[in-house]
């Protein structure tokens, strides 16, 4: 079930009505949990069993961790959680990738090995709920949170439908306290939550799917060499598409949660206004970047060692972050590029940190443009369906390439208009929040804008597309 469907509209309405009854809070939590399982089962019902298994294992292991003081036993229990969660993730997400690369390696060694096809179906959202349950077990191991005594509350934490399949990745310390007593959304919270849902749908349906996706697909999904204008336009369009698609999902998830009385953390803070790549990762997919920082980068040693050790930790974190997105060398390259960006930024900060021109307004604008350019270059590898296609897109920029794919003036105009508006909005709002800015706009302006967004959503002729991050 996807947010941009009439099925979800009916489903969400029924959930809201059910949560507004006079039943006990425990009954409502059970109703919300069952609703979340129904939401997930629409894709592939058998995978609900996998979700149950992961939930039960981590709930039990965390309780055993808290009850055990013997350190070797605690480490063994933590390793058990890591083995189960990462083992399931590795099998479903990376089994085919590993087998394919082993086959290629054996072929290079002269061994003709033809394995049977695995035909593994990737459970939707497995990367998200795996990281969510892992963070809980690790936090219990580190004694940062107490184990949850209620299996119902813990299951709801893992399965809460607004963020189940594509985040934000929620920490137990943020969500579980909200299950203690019944959250009651005020009229203002309901209104703001519905407004966020409209905004997120507008970003997804109108901007990402209706305007930008066809331009991206015409270039990236072709087998022919694009012109420089086609390569640049499609890559810029994808930068807009992936933001509007993923930020749109997160905005809908946060809004839907708010209508139900729950709070979810922000996942985007105007990332295309980032000044530097560290700033970008503080603004883009915040729940993942903070997870990688707290549970991987810090565990590797963070920046506590020598400079070279810090650079190694950064690169490993970003390479694994890239691999988290998908079983493809393209994602590894994408993560590696961001690792190089972060290392280069640290080197330059060491060399130019005291240089006053480095901190002027003009330098900040230039750094913002440089950051956005680096991000867009990396998006080529993120979006292209294969490494060869990534090279084809980049080859299209060379002067001696044979041009076979072009874009129309209308495509260029659409991309330029959408991205100009998006970049301007990000720059103007980079030091603020959407809620703060919106609260200063008169109601007589906000209501017509939301009405126009709704009209555009219902009139949008774009093809229905799943959210991009569903594949991760």
Describe the structure.
The chain is mainly alpha-helical and 472 residues long. Helix content is 69%, strand content 0%. Helix 3 packs across helix 6 (151-159) and helix 9 crosses helix 14. It is globular.
Q: What order do the helices and strands follow?
A: HHHHHHHHHHHHHHHHHH
* Head-to-tail CA distance between termini: 16 Å
Helix/strand-derived class? mainly alpha
Q: Approximately how much beta-strand content do the residues carry?
A: under 5%
Q: Kindly provide the radius of gyration, computed on alpha-carbon positions and rounded to a whole number of angstroms.
A: 23 Å
User: How would a textbook summarize the main sheet?
Assistant: none
The count of strands amounts to 0
Low-confidence stretches: none
Number of H- or I-type helical stretches? 18
Overall mean pLDDT: 89
Tertiary shape: globular
> Considering DSSP H and I runs of 4 or more, what fraction of the residues is helical?
55-70%
Chart the SSEs and their pairings.
Blueprint: H1 6-19, H2 25-41, H3 47-67, H4 71-108, H5 126-141, H6 151-159, H7 172-175, H8 187-220, H9 228-259, H10 277-281, H11 286-300, H12 307-325, H13 329-352, H14 361-383, H15 387-395, H16 409-429, H17 434-439, H18 443-459
Condensed summary:
The protein is built from 18 helices and no strands.
List the main descriptive attributes of the protein structure presented here.
472 residues, mainly alpha, 18 helices
């Amino acid at each position: 079930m996807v947010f941009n469907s009439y099925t979800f509209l009916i489903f969400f309405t029924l959930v809201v009505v059910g949560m507004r009854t006079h039943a006990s809070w425990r009954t409502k939590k059970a109703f919300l949990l069952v609703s979340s399982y129904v939401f997930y089962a629409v894709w592939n019902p058998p995978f609900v069993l996998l979700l149950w298994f992961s939930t039960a294992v981590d709930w039990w292991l965390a309780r055993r961790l808290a009850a055990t003081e013997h350190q070797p036993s605690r480490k063994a229990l933590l390793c058990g959680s890591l083995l189960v969660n990462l083992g399931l993730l590795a099998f479903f997400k990376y089994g085919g990738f590993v087998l394919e690369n082993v086959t290629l390696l054996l072929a290079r060694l002269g061994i003709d090995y033809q394995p049977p096809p695995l035909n593994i179906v990737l459970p939707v959202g497995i990367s998200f709920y795996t990281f969510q349950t892992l963070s809980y077990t690790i936090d219990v191991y580190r004694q940062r949170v107490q184990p949850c005594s209620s299996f119902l509350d813990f299951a709801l934490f893992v399965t809460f439908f607004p963020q189940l399949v594509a985040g934000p990745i929620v920490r137990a310390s943020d969500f579980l306290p909200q299950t203690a007593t019944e959250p009651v959304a005020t009229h203002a919270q309901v209104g703001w939550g519905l407004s966020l849902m409209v905004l997120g749908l507008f970003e997804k349906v109108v901007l990402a799917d209706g305007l930008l996706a066809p331009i991206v697909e015409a270039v990236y999904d072709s087998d022919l060499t694009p012109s420089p204008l086609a390569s640049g336009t499609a890559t810029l369009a994808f930068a807009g598409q992936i933001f509007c698609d993923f930020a749109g999902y997160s905005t809908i998830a946060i809004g839907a949660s708010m209508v139900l009385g729950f709070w979810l953390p922000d996942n985007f803070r105007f990332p295309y206004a980032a000044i530097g790549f560290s700033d970008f990762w503080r603004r883009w997919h915040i729940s993942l970047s903070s997870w990688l920082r707290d549970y991987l980068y810090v565990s590797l040693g963070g920046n506590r060692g020598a400079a070279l050790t810090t650079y190694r930790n950064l690169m490993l974190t970003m390479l694994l972050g890239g691999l988290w997105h998908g079983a493809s060398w393209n994602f590894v390259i994408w993560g590696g590029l961001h690792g190089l960006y972060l290392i280069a930024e640290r080197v330059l900060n060491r060399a130019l940190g005291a240089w006053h021109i480095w901190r002027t307004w003009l330098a900040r604008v230039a750094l913002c443009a440089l950051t956005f350019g680096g991000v867009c270059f990396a998006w080529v590898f993120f979006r292209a369906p294969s490494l060869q296609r990534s090279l084809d897109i980049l080859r299209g920029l060379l002067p001696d390439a044979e041009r076979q794919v072009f874009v129309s003036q209308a495509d260029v105009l659409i991309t330029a208009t959408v991205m100009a508006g998006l970049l301007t909005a990000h720059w103007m709002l980079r030091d603020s929040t959407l809620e703060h800015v919106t609260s200063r706009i008169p109601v007589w302006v906000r209501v017509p804008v939301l009405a126009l967004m709704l009209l555009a959503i219902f009139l949008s002729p774009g093809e229905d597309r799943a959210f991009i991050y569903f594949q991760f």
